[in-house]
Amino acid sequence: MRSMNRTIEVYTIGHSTSKLDQIVRLLQQHSIQLLLDVRSRPRSRWAPWFNQQNLATAIPGIGVEYRWAGDRLGGLPDDPAYYKPNPHPTKKTDPPTVADYDKIARQEWFQKAINELLEIASSRRTAIMCAEEDPGTCHRSLLLGNTLAEKGVKVLHIRKNGNLEPQLA
Q: Which residue among 30, 72, 117, 144 sits deepest, i.e. has the most Cβ atoms within 10 Å of its Cβ?
């Protein structure tokens, strides 16, 4: 799977309410070859150009392959067994439960998907994409980034200004 002489790098990016051309520019700036969409529900009410079909059509036009993996690497699993009571509800609108990332990270199906991601990232410059711009509030850092870092992967978050931010341990 991985070459013993080089560290695998995985990039992350959050589209937020950016325009498609802004994300395209960031992907090109960092020479991304594969965009792996890790949104559980690959659509956006506020930025419809990031809906799965729109991305799957647009991204290959700039030489970047698009794949969806939110069914196994998403932060909102369908199964209620992977949720726990929300430990910090601050407003009435906060959800009563939140995804249990520790439990998800221990699942065989999740580990298999992580290993598939590592296989891809060992040969192609890969970015995982979710909706939140700030990786500190997103499962691409809290679940995926932490899991990858534990495996010795260098995780770099592409911020909207183009800067790279390393995964915090």
A: 144
CATH number for the domain that contains residue 90: 3.40.1010.10
Cβ–Cβ < 8 Å for 14, 136: no
Instruction: Report the pLDDT value the prediction gives residue 3, as an integer from 0 to 100.
Output: 45
pLDDT for position 11 = 98
The helix (run of H) or strand (run of E) holding residue 149 is helix 146-150
Q: Residue 1: inside a domain, yes or no? A: no
Give the global pTM. Answer: 0.92
Q: Can you give the residue range of the structural domain that contains 94?
A: 9-166
Q: How far apart are alpha carbons 103 and 118 in whole angstroms?
A: 20
- Please state, in angstroms and rounded to a whole number, the distance separating the CA atoms of residues 51 and 46: 10
Residues 135-161: pLDDT tens digits?
Answer: 999 999 999 999 999 999 999 999 999
| 77 touches 104 (CB < 8 A) | yes
